[in-house]
Amino acid sequence: MGSRSKIDLAYIAGFLDGDGSLMLQVKKRKDGKLKWRFMCTICFYQDSRHEKPLYWIRKILGIGYLSRRNDGMSELRINGFKQVRDILRNLLSFIRFKKNQARALEKATSLLSEKPLSGFSKKDLRNLVDLMLAIQSNNYATKRKKTRQELIKILDLTP
Question: What is the pLDDT of residue 149?
Fold first, then answer.
């Protein structure tokens, strides 16, 4: 990786620190044995009038999809355990303000990349709940966040 690549990664990390978010969520599902799934996301936000940097970030990272929201904002979203893990590993040394969230999401995506969910123990799932709470406790969100008790119930971890 040349110095230009490191400069690009530093810029992207700074953009994420200022106008991005890191998320690990449990989503309900109707199909399959498990009635839920984990979803991880790196998201970059920008006013749609100035969305050009989002296209540049997507080009540099080689992944993601752009969408325009109804409120005049554009988003670049990147999903997938391995993809998010690899991007965070490249950005982590440059991230300043979301360092704790990035470390927690990198740990979670590493766990989720190792084996299928059916192979997870209750201890593994509780560890993921802890990581999820660490990420969301530092996120600004307008929607209500799930509590530890709600997550434990969803994942059927009640004693």
Answer: 83
